[in-house]
Amino acid sequence: MRFGVIGVGSFGRKRAQAVIESRGQLVAVADTQESRATRVAAELGVLALPPPALLADPRIDAVIVCTPNRDHAAIGLQAVEQHKHVIIEKPLARSSAEAAPLASAARKAGVFVKTGANHRFFPSVQRARQLLLEGAIGEVLHFNGRIGHDGERLAGSWSWDAAMSGGGSMLDNGCHLLDIARWIMGPFVAVTGMRSNVYWRDCGVEDTAAAVYATAAGKMAVISASWRQLSGYLHFEVNGSDGYLTVDGRFDTHGGDRLYWQSRKAGSDIFALDFGHRPQRSYVDELDAFIDAVAAGVTPEPTVEDGIEVLRMVEALYRADGTRERV
After folding, report:
1. 201 and 273 share a domain?
2. Which of 80, 100, 123, 139 is the most exposed place for a label (fewest CB within 10 A)?
3. Is 175 in the same domain as 33?
4. Which residue blocks in the chain are alpha helix, DSSP H?
5. Is the Cα dihedral 121, 126, 129, 134 positive or negative?
6. Is there a single domain that holds both residue 185 and residue 168?
7. β-strands 25-30, 243-248: how paired?
8. Are residues 8 and 107 in the same domain?
9. Between the CA atoms of 102, 165, 194 and 229, what dihedral angle is there, to the nearest 10 degrees?
């Protein structure tokens, strides 16, 4: 599969490099800053094209969109109209209403649109998912997670501008945990929670948010996201009827490196796996899974509909914060 990447800032550059390391082929990159596209293209040995030319190029089968959030849905739609498959870096858009046309357009064009979700491809998260599917801890009853970083790399950037980003820490990095919680527990129907600015006081969106989501059966997921979290990037615990499992990321790495689980079915032992020694390949593994799914005619996950549901979860939290009521 031949790829083009639109938007080659820090994350777009990572995505472009991941294509090269995957089973795909990187054909071209594009950016509104022509000099940046030219520089990255030279570094990677590919073409630098204007965004419209990349979208129309018949040599490209799939487009990865890594622009600021404001442009995600619009560029995604343009790619779909050119009959390209699309991966859109999370979040899918600034709002569920903005993202909704992507689903119908993709069905009409006969192409796939996937939400970027490389955290699903952390080895610890993959193994945790496997254990849950095997019933290692019985029926899943509760999810508790936190995700965040120090916020320094975002200070004063477009991420602080609500018109550009659509939201703050819960939309930016919290969406990863929302996706994982849905992946594990299924859909949620209600939320209560709050958001605030406790450190980046001049920020136009929240730097901290916390929410309690509930399924129709009353099972809960407690999730917090922060742009001033210094004690580690990703942590979540899943409790079941027969045990628990925990994914824990060290403070000096980007990802959930360690997995612990205990099950009454296996006695009193606590099992532990440390994936910290492995190179970070989540973007590459995600791309290879996308390529395999498209080749098999299977919708790549998380789907465009999954991405829209995560946006609805964030929007519901924002409404709950505004009304101080359960939404």
Report:
1. yes
2. 139
3. no
4. 10-21, 34-44, 51-56, 72-81, 96-109, 123-133, 162-165, 169-172, 174-185, 282-296, 304-323
5. positive
6. yes
7. unpaired
8. yes
9. 120
Farthest CA pair distance, the chain: 60
The tokens for 229 are 């979290």
Does 83 lie in the same domain as 140?
Answer: no
- What's the domain range around 63? 2-115+284-302
- Please tell me whether residues 271 and 128 are part of one structural domain: yes
Paired tokens of 180: 């994982």
Q: What is the pLDDT of residues 245-278, one digit of tens each?
A: 999 976 555 556 899 999 998 888 999 999 988 8
Residue 98 falls inside a structural domain: yes
CB-hemisphere CA count at 13 Å for 237?
8
Would you say 160 and 154 are in contact if contact means Cβ atoms under 8 Å apart? yes
And the tokens for 262?
A: 């205990």
Residues 133 and 93 in one domain: no
Cβ atoms of 77 and 93 closer than 8 Å: no
Contact 102, 73 (CB under 8 A): yes
**Total residue count of the chain as it appears in this document:** 327
With contact defined as beta carbons under 8 Å apart, do 18 and 290 qualify? no
CATH number at residue 80: 3.40.50.720
Strand (E) or helix (H) holding 104:
helix 96-109
